[in-house]
Specification:
Structural class: mainly alpha
Distance between the termini: 48 Å
Order of helices and strands: HHHEHHEEHH
Number of helices: 7
CATH topology of one domain: Arc Repressor Mutant, subunit A
CATH class of one domain: Mainly Alpha
Strand content: 5-15%
Shape: globular
């Protein structure tokens, strides 16, 4: 018997475009099947990609890590700008920024334009904590993809970049990257 890829699909069904369920709404054609598989694999990836392999690793909470990563390659931002950039409501951003300020991972910086709104930027300790968290994630990735040939790694990177750029274009909200 073919090993199951997920509770809903088997490898033989992936190739044929057939759904595992008798429900006619499940995988009526190959395009539908590929969307179902992408959705399912992205769900699994979202559960796993930001978890340390070693439970003893000390790292930033996910929201603080994302916030610091957003600010790492950008000019200091107002809370409103952060809210728009992350697509989160103002109260959520206020809580996240307040927690990062208390932990001294963010700081208010002088506003060069004379505007009243205060801007926040990462502190040296915030960047260090982000760097350590990133190192933990990179170590986990190395364990998973360490034996992949470079061409396969690059193909995965290219697909992730294409996907993320498409989402950013649809949202009208580009995310700064180190090489940009």
């Amino acid at each position: 018997m073919t090993p199951a890829v997920s509770p809903f699909f088997t490898k033989s069904m992936i190739g044929s475009g057939m759904a595992a369920s008798a429900n006619p709404m499940d995988g009526a054609n190959c395009a539908d099947m590929s969307l179902k598989l992408m959705q399912y694999e992205l769900m699994l990836m979202s559960r796993k990609y930001m978890k340390p392999l070693d439970a003893g690793d000390v790292m930033l909470e996910r929201s603080a890590y994302v916030l610091l990563c957003r600010l790492e390659h950008a000019a200091p931002m107002t809370l409103k700008e952060i809210s728009e950039a992350l697509g989160l409501d103002a109260s959520t951003i206020n809580r996240q920024v307040a927690a990062s300020l208390r932990q001294e991972h963010l700081e208010y910086v002088p506003n060069a334009t004379g505007q009243a709104a205060r801007r926040v930027a990462p502190t040296k300790s915030g960047l260090a904590a982000m760097g350590e968290t990133r190192r933990i994630f990179e170590h986990g990735l190395e364990i998973v993809v360490g034996d992949w040939p470079e061409a396969k790694r690059q193909q995965f990177i290219d697909l992730l970049l294409d996907f993320n750029h498409q989402v950013e274009a649809l949202e009208g909200n580009a995310w700064p990257r180190p090489q940009e």
